[in-house]
Amino acid sequence: MHVYIYDEYLNKTKHNRAINRLEIRLTDLGLNGKIIRLGGIKNIKGTIQNEIKLGAKTIIAVGNNQTVNKIIGAIIDTEIYGDFQKKTLLGLVPIGDDNSIAASFGIKNIDEACNILLARRVEKIDLGLVGNYYFLNQASIQSLGTTIEIDDYSLEITDKGEVRIINLLSDQKETIKSNPHDGKLDILIRTRRRDESLITVKNLKITNPQEKLIVDGVVEINTPVQIGIMKDKVSVIVGKDRLFE
Amino acid sequence: MFSKENKLEKFKDAETIIGASIKVKGNFQGQGNIIIEGALEGSLKTEANLFVGDRAKVVASIESKDAIINGELRGNIKARGYLALGGTAKIFGDIQYTELSVEKGAVINGQISMLAEGERRGENKKAEIKNEESEK
């Protein structure tokens, strides 16, 4: 059984056309299933967990990065996770802005998303963990004043720019390679002097008293904070144009 | 041997790059190739190769397979393979190597010695045994 989780913001009339198009396409492909609209639900975690208990084979996030993160947050580190890992796949249908996670999986629009759901190409993906918050793509922070502690050493950054802690790349033009199955995070530091640093780690602690860490482009987290990685934590339906091997 | 192309060819798949805006403090250990263009204080050890850029300032003991040094190093270096000191290299410490080349202009303040046969071969043997085990 497919369970489609529609995010709250899709209740707005400007998304009606996209939703209609999605539902017609899903019906054409024989992929229709149960629809859950988060707009009217207070206990989002409980609702998603219940669908997995009832035997959902695919949970599909219809929305943006936040929708995916809400679903992951409802599943990981809960008693339902064992069932989810054995039986359930995660699918994505991007609608609107902030869809870097879908882009990473090679899912650019509704039509592609439907075809990808039909093809059911599955990849196990690592999850980044910042404090108690899980992320698929990356966490980022301004570089100047940021200190990073890793194992037995620390990094201090002396120029303005950006620090990115990457699990899964979202930018097709990016020159570095990042593997979301390797159980490691890539720290990419780019400063205004076009200076680039790259370090691959399993765990780190990041501190910047002036700036907040932005996770998957939407969530702000105060530092100091520990960042880690959990290997092959989610099985995701991906497109052939995904940004990793 | 010190051309930019040469450096890029050998280090294009570098696992770790420490840029010019970064200061590293502590004991840094890696498995893959490492490029240092910034500052490092402490110690550095890698199973693979090391490149130190001409603006880099390293105050550390270093151990690697092949190493190309173009910057300033205050500390001892042990290159189990080939060690190349560029014309801008300034070394204040002891050097141990298997093969060595020194470009005109390089400054060396320390003892220079070739690694003992057993020491340099020992690393290779370990690697060979590991490879054989993985093949089995």
- Measured between the Cα atoms of the first and last residue of chain A, the distance is 28 Å
Main beta sheet of chain A: 6 strands, antiparallel
Low-confidence stretches of chain B: 1-6
Given helix and strand content, the structural type of chain A is: alpha+beta
How many structural domains are formed by the residues of chain B?
Answer: 1
Order of helices and strands of chain B: HEEEEEEEEEEEEEEEH
| Mean pLDDT value of chain A | 92
Estimate the helix proportion of chain A, in percent: 10-25%
- CATH architecture heading of the largest domain in chain A: 3-Layer(aba) Sandwich
What's the CATH first level of the largest domain in chain A? Alpha Beta
Q: State which percent range the strand residues of chain A make up.
A: 35-45%
What is the 3D shape of chain A?
Answer: globular
Number of strands of chain A: 16
User: How many H/I helices of chain A?
Assistant: 6
CATH superfamily (homologous) name of the largest domain in chain A: Probable inorganic polyphosphate/atp-NAD kinase, domain 1
Order of helices and strands of chain A: EHEHEHHEHHEEEEEEEEEEEE
Question: How many angstroms separate the termini of chain B?
Answer: 38 Å
Mean model confidence by pLDDT of chain B: 85
| Count of DSSP strands of chain B | 15
Radius of gyration of chain B (CA) equals 15 Å
Could you give the order of strands across the largest sheet of chain A?
Answer: 6-5-16-13-8-9
